[in-house]
Design goal:
Blueprint lengths: L1 H11 L5 H8 L8 H5 L5 E6 L2 E2 L3 E2 L6 H10 L4 E5 L2 H4 L3 H10 L4 E4 L5 H10 L3 E5 L5 H13 L3 E6 L2 H9 L4 E5 L11 H6 L8 E5 L5 H9 L4 E4 L1 H5 L3 H9 L4
Parallel strand pairs: 1-4, 1-10, 4-5, 5-6, 6-7, 7-8, 8-9, 9-10
Antiparallel strand pairs: 2-3
Helix pairs in contact: 2-7, 4-6
Length: about 250
């Protein structure tokens, strides 16, 4: 599935002019620090805006990104993640723009970034950080895109799924590492993945556990494994009171 999504991404971004986007972004105010927000005491919650996913189908077709993001922020979310991939996740860059206008906390663009033009596009749209997926990038590409993000003033959350990917992320200079509990082949979710990779990413400045956090007990389990934050999507977009759930997750303790 990852290969399929990447194959669909390349023609989608072919029109982007990286040099022009970089020039347009040159005068923007400094971005907010995702690293700083997640390094604060307590368990940070990155609350996600996501309408659907390939593994779970439709999650929230009528989701209003700005309203949902405001509720997340009200509950104390450290940051907001916005899925902008259109074909498989029904997202858009417009969703990112709307969220940026609605909240003051850092905003993470979550997409399948394979070209530096997407990083400059993210900066112009108001992102404070971008997701880089190790499984989608060669080592040289990963290191290059981490560097481009830094030049753009954005943090890079580098996502891994295996021990090999964890070592590659650390070798590339990742400061923020996210361990995804979802197997990209089978889509199975197992919180033991983050637990098993905790030692491999221990030197990262900020460690984030992603996927499969559905309740406070799950968040507490990730905190006990040494993670500074959890990224929560499905549980929050389905929640009747997302602000209350964010607040509950923030109180999770090992």
């Amino acid at each position: 599935m990852l290969d399929e999504i990447i194959a669909a991404t390349r023609p989608r971004i072919a029109h982007l002019d990286g040099a022009a986007l970089q020039a347009a972004a040159s005068g923007l105010p400094a971005a907010r620090s995702l690293e700083g927000a997640l390094a604060a005491p307590g368990l940070g919650v990155i609350a996600e805006i996501k309408r659907r996913s390939p593994s779970r189908g439709q999650l929230a077709a009528d989701l209003r990104p700005a309203d949902r993001a405001a509720a997340y922020a009200q509950g104390g979310a450290a940051a907001i993640s916005v899925l902008t991939e259109p074909e498989y996740f029904s997202g858009s860059v417009e969703d990112l723009v709307a969220v940026r206008q609605a909240v003051e906390v850092p905003v993470l663009r979550k997409d399948f970034i394979v070209d530096e033009a997407q990083i400059w596009e993210s900066r112009l749209a108001g992102a404070d950080a971008v997701l880089l997926i190790v499984a989608a990038l060669a080592d040289a590409e990963l290191a290059h895109l981490i560097g481009v993000a830094a030049r753009a003033g954005l943090d890079a959350l580098v996502e891994v799924h295996t021990h090999d990917e964890a070592h590659r992320a650390m070798a590339a200079g990742a400061r923020l590492v996210g361990v995804n509990n979802r197997d990209l082949g089978s889509f199975a979710v197992d919180l033991a993945t983050a637990e098993s990779l905790a030692a491999a990413v221990a030197d990262a400045r900020v460690r984030v556990a992603e996927s499969g956090i559905l309740a406070v007990a799950d968040a507490a389990r990730m905190a006990a494994a040494g993670y500074h934050a959890v990224l929560v999507g499905e549980a929050l977009v389905r929640a009747d009171d997302p602000a209350a759930l964010v607040a509950e997750l923030r109180l999770a303790r090992p």
